[in-house]
């Protein structure tokens, strides 16, 4: 694949139709240079090419997002724009003139003939439509959308784009990412990952065969577990969506608080700014401390906290509960009879005492008997303030709960201490606010406006605490759901292992196992062959590029494509000891090696090609890497990167030169001209 022409129309910083004529690449003169100052459109050009082949990726959306922006960028907002945070695809000048359409188009030559690919958008307000088309001189018909995307995937898969269209300064991430992530990247580029996809499909088919061979009861159990798993996974997805929503709300409110705080600070005219700064910093630290304490309390405070807070009530309940337990073994009718009849029988039925009791004596003894009965039979008839009238509960369990809270003095003291500290902090915060306002020279109307907006901002802070508490609860719930999902998956696996298959199903199942084993061995063999090729190539290229010292004598590649750097004594050199420039050279050597091993012939397009590299190593890139990186290489340097000396080094390999113009900031255009006068 060799580009002949690239056309950008009203996309990003490119206004109207801007065309790059890239014909003329040949052996020995294969480099096109597009030079421009920062902000003139170099990155926009390479991003447009990435979008043409791979569409708008999540990585691209995240790369465009502004830290602290009010709203998170989505695919839609990336296309149509997001206010002052992101303009969108459509060029600003074109949008002001009422234009709605933008596109990126490329024409290239390949072995079968000429291909023209075009990805277009029509954007109107908050709505957009998009389409992709492919025209060739060797296919019988044009391709649209999904068919067109599949055509591009066969030429330059999305997984290849970071290795062929890249910012040289940013590819050092390849030298820093985890070994698992690097393995994933390399397996995608070398088409090894597809074996895993095939094995996954075989595993699903094998599971279906097992299901078909099950007895009815076994299948019912399996389906029950699978149904529960679907419910749990739906709950996990819902939980994640709610967490995402809360994070967006938290980010939005934090941004609003920060903006309003900045505005409020600008309203103040402190007579003593030094004291005010100290107070503001103290206030900020105090707010952070209070927020953390409130969140901690929301987690630590038990759901039955009222029992913890009311020790007297708990002790009263325990006393009444013990009374209930004492009388619970005495039949109810007997208790009633004793209470009703005993005083009458004692004093109002013969035989009577001699001499007869006086009225005062009789009254005294009746009252005494009543008190004795109450002390002995306390609780047989609950008082009006009893807590346990007709209790429908387990007395033993309730007594255990109440006993715990009656004796939980240490927990009670700890929570009380936290609440007291929080109350004191609130008082301290009010004191600081009062001091800040007292030190202000705002007028009466301004002070009223200030206090109103300050109260509103305080509402936001309280809302922020609530949101963070809710988010924390969701995270805790998510952990439980994930644990439950793991248990269900394990149950499903155990259920499948119990299956006694029919002879036919058993043959199919054994065949699937053989196929899985075959493809596993095939993948292992592929990886082994590629591993040795990559190791040989990366060592050759790293030594060509890294010539200033011999800190790294050899690069080894393990079975999972992990890179290991060794010195001349065979000791490992940790990546943490590499400079940023050295990481970039290591990543460049890896990209070069993968291009060699994959045998892909796509053009290499590089933004900021010399980046953080020192002078000697820049010369290595200019003389050794870029002339040999591909059949066609397109470099997008800044004017400071490619000075006259470096330009003269590269000049014999250059076949096309362009300068980027964009003085207005929204009208990038290509001018075909020599970068430096002869």
Short description:
The protein is α/β, with parallel strands linked by helices. It has 22 helices and 14 strands. It has helices at 42-54, 58-64, 75-80, 92-96, 145-155, 161-164, 173-176, 179-189, 193-212, 216-267, 273-300, 305-309, 311-327, 332-348, 359-376, 395-406, 409-438, 444-497, 503-545, 580-598, 615-625, 644-650; strands spanning 2-11, 14-21, 31-35, 101-110, 113-124, 127-136, 143-144, 165-167, 554-557, 563-566, 604-607, 633-636, 654-661, 669-672.
Written overview of the protein:
- With 678 residues, the protein is an alpha/beta fold.
- Helix content is 58%, strand content 13%.
- The chain has 22 helices and 14 strands.
- The longest helix is centred in the last third of the chain and has 54 residues.
- 22% of the residues are buried.
- About 3% of the residues have low confidence.
What descriptive keywords fit this protein?
single chain; 678 residues; alpha/beta; six-stranded antiparallel beta sheet; six-stranded mixed beta sheet; 22 helices; 58% helix
Number of helical elements: 22
Overall shape: elongated
Low-confidence stretches: 269-274, 379-384, 389-393
Radius of gyration: 39 Å
Secondary-structure-derived class? alpha/beta
Largest sheet: 6 strands, antiparallel
Got a strand count? 14
Helix content: 55-70%
What is the average of the pLDDT values?
81
Strand order of the largest sheet: 2-1-4-5-6-7
| Spatial gap, N to C terminus | 32 Å
Oligomer type: single chain
**Strand share of the residues?**
5-15%
């Amino acid at each position: 694949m060799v580009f002949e022409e690239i056309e950008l129309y009203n996309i990003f910083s490119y206004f109207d139709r801007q065309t790059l004529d890239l014909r003329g690449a040949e052996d020995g003169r294969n480099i096109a240079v597009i030079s421009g100052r920062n902000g003139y459109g170099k990155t926009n050009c390479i991003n447009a090419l990435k979008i043409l082949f791979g569409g708008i990726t999540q990585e691209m959306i995240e790369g465009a997002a502004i830290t602290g922006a009010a709203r998170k960028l989505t695919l839609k907002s990336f296309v149509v724009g997001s206010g002052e945070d992101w303009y969108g695809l459509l060029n600003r000048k074109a949008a002001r003139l009422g234009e709605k359409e933008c596109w990126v188009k490329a024409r290239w030559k390949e072995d079968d003939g000429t291909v023209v690919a075009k990805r277009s958008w029509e954007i109107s307000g908050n709505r957009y439509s998009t389409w992709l088309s492919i025209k060739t001189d060797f296919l019988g018909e044009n391709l649209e959308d999904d068919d067109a995307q599949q055509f591009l995937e066969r030429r330059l898969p999305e997984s290849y784009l970071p290795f062929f269209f890249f910012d040289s300064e940013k590819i050092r991430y390849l030298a820093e990412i985890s070994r698992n992530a690097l393995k994933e990247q390399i397996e995608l580029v070398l088409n090894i990952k597809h074996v895993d996809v095939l094995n996954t499909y075989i595993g699903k088919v094998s599971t279906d065969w097992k299901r078909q061979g099950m007895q009815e009861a076994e299948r019912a159990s399996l389906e029950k577990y699978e149904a529960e798993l679907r419910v749990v996974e739906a709950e996990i997805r819902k939980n994640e969506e709610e967490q995402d929503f809360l994070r967006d709300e938290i980010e939005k409110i934090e941004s609003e608080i920060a903006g309003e705080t900045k505005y409020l600070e600008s309203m103040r005219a402190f007579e003593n700014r030094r004291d005010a700064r100290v107070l503001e910093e103290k206030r900020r630290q105090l707010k952070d401390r209070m927020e953390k304490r409130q969140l901690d309390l929301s987690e630590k405070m038990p759901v039955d906290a009222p029992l913890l807070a009311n020790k007297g009530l708990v002790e009263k309940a325990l006393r009444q509960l013990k009374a209930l337990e004492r009388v619970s073994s005495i039949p109810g009718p007997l208790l009633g009879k004793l209470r009703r009849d005993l005083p009458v029988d004692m004093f109002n039925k013969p035989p009577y005492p001699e001499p007869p009791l006086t009225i005062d004596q009789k009254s005294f003894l009746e009252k005494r008997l009543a008190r004795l009965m109450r002390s002995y039979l306390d609780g047989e008839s609950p008082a009006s303030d009893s807590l346990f009238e007709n209790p429908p509960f387990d007395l033993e369990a309730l007594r255990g709960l109440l006993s715990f809270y009656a004796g939980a003095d240490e927990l009670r003291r700890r929570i009380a201490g936290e609440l007291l500290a929080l109350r004191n902090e609130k008082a301290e915060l009010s004191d600081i606010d009062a001091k800040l306002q007292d030190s202000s020279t705002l007028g009466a109307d301004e002070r009223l406006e200030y206090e109103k907006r300050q109260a509103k901002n305080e509402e936001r802070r309280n809302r922020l605490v609530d949101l963070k508490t809710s988010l924390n609860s969701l995270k805790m719930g998510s952990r439980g759901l994930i644990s439950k999902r793991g248990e269900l998956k394990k149950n499903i696996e155990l259920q499948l292992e119990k299956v006694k298959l029919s002879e036919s199903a058993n043959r199919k199942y054994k065949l699937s196992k053989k196929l899985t084993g075959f493809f596993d061995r095939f993948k292992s063999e592929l990886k082994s062959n590629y591993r040795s090729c990559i190791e040989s190539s990366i060592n050759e290229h790293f030594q060509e590029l890294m010539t200033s010292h011999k800190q790294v004598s050899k690069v080894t590649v393990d079975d999972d494509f992990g890179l290991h750097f060794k010195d001349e004594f065979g000791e490992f050199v940790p990546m943490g000891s590499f400079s940023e420039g050295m990481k970039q050279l290591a990543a460049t050597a890896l990209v070069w090696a993968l291009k060699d091993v994959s045998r892909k012939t796509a053009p290499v397009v590089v933004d900021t090609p010399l980046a953080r590299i020192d002078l000697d190593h820049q010369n290595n890139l200019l003389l050794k890497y870029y002339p040999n990186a591909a059949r066609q290489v397109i470099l997008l340097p800044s004017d400071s990167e490619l000075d006259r000396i470096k330009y003269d080094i590269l000049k014999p390999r250059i076949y096309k030169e362009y300068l980027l113009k964009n003085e207005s900031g929204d009208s990038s255009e290509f001018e075909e001209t020599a970068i430096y006068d002869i």
